[in-house]
Amino acid sequence: MNRRLLVAVCLVAAVLGGVLVWVLKDDDPATRDTAPRPHPTGVVKTDLPGLTPATGEPSLQGIQSAAPDARKVTLLPGPFDDRFKLTGLRFDGTAVTGTMTITSDVSDVLELQVLAGFYDAGGTFLGDARFTHHLDEDTHADAGPPSEQESFRIAVPAKFRGQAASAAVGVPVLVNE
User: Fold this and answer.
1) Domain ranges of the chain
2) CATH tag, 73-176
3) In the structure, what pLDDT confidence band is assigned to residue 171 with cuts at 50, 70 and 90?
């Protein structure tokens, strides 16, 4: 008997729900509210007039005029200088190397780009090259403490080999949690 009562209650509820939806449904275009709706106050505008999207790779101010002494590596100022420490900077004529240690957070490095400018013996800017690190979610393991160090090596571009006498490095991209 309880089972029949339960089935009957469910059927009545379903029928009443269907009738309610049908009654409240507004198919008549003449009765629809077509007035423009105000935008919610929490909406963020993402299209700002006068701004053009960035193109190309990020650079650092002063890269073309740094002119470090021969066989030396200097640090280019950048937007993230307060978040890392560079150690072991070396230039051997073929590549600039070093190790970056994150000092601001204790999370894995998600994105990192180290930019190196190369200069001839007179301090004239020859060109640049980059080291880029992307966290690979497929091979990354969350076990243990986060990786806060990243060693890099940036080779002198082939067309400047034998001419490059010094280097300058900086960090235009750094993303960590």
Assistant:
1) 73-176
2) 2.60.40
3) very high
